[in-house]
Amino acid sequence: MLLNNRHLLGIAELSPQEINTILDLADKYVDLNRETERKGQRLKGRTVVNLFFEVSTRTRGSFELAAKRLGADCINMNADGTSTRKGETLIDTAMTLNAMHIDVLVVRHSASGAVKLLADKVNCAVINAGDGQHEHPTQALLDALVMRRRTKKLEGLNVAICGDILHSRVARSNIFLLNKLGARVRVVAPLTLLPKDIERLGCEVHTRMETGVRDADIIMMLRIQNERMEGSFVPSAREYYHFFGLDRAKLNLAKPDALIMHPGPMNRGVEIDSEVADDIHRSLILNQVEFGVAVRMACLDLLTRQLMSSQRLQDAAQ
């Protein structure tokens, strides 16, 4: 099954069947990545460009590794190295890259909607690697794969997403995905870090960790995004950790086998206690990093298949 859209801009536009198609293929890539011979030729001759207007280590590295393991040519570009620093518009950048006949453009941008604007101007497939406070679809997909492989199902799971919900594109994408696949979602944060009307996305809202994580199957902690904050949203890191940091005492309120996740990078002693983050029996944080490559391989694979199918149809029509 191919995806219905040429681009992957957000979870909101995917059907449950499309999500499962991506997860099923990513499942196979997880196993392949654990083999000694990991590199394939699925994308041989294809070009993937990572265009990042925000600093990123793990997401960009994950996309680069995914492209190379599929045999693609991969180029990394960041904001400091693009002509936008010299006054070029985002559209001009898109049109310039489009003229180079690339196949997949992976974009991260600080403005919500910027990736969609760019996608409307190019012929290649575009993957949203995080835009402002809008969406981060591949993070939600890899989170879902981690949960599915560990618990065998997503339907019926109680998932508590805790922390800086207000500035988090990861939270939005996860809420969309988990609702589509039948999980029950709670968000837990101080009132200052909760978006207005967040419950309209289909989640319970809690302002105390003690009630929010009680009997949860999964506790997903989020990073405090100081770079997106103008003004003071929390009194201090110490006070935030006291009330909303995940430590052993708060974890004990969840189910006895509850699992811990964090999209990274972690602020230890602020969002999460080191002893909890490093608990090899409960923490899935390193699995999230590992499975990120597999999910991005699946997305690149499916989108390039769709691109090739569209090109064949266009050639046949001419």
Description of the molecule:
With 318 residues, the protein is α/β, with parallel strands linked by helices. 39% of the residues lie in helices and 14% in strands. It has eleven helices and nine strands. Strands 7-6-5-8-9 form a five-stranded parallel β-sheet. Helix 1 packs across helix 5 (137-151) and helix 1 (16-33) crosses helix 11. The protein is globular, with a radius of gyration of 20 Å.
Summarize the topology.
Blueprint: H1 16-33, E1 47-52, H2 58-69, E2 73-78, H3 90-98, E3 104-109, H4 114-119, E4 125-131, H5 137-151, E5 158-162, H6 169-180, E6 184-188, E7 204-206, H7 209-212, E8 218-221, H8 237-244, H9 248-251, E9 259-261, H10 274-277, H11 285-317
Parallel strand pairs: 1-2, 1-3, 3-4, 5-6, 5-8, 6-7, 8-9
Features:
alpha/beta, 318 residues, 9 strands, five-stranded parallel beta sheet, four-stranded parallel beta sheet
What is the number of helical segments per DSSP (H or I, 4+ residues)?
A: 11
Query: Rough shape?
Result: globular
* H and E order: HEHEHEHEHEHEEHEHHEHH
Largest sheet: 5 strands, parallel
Mean pLDDT: 93
Number of strands: 9
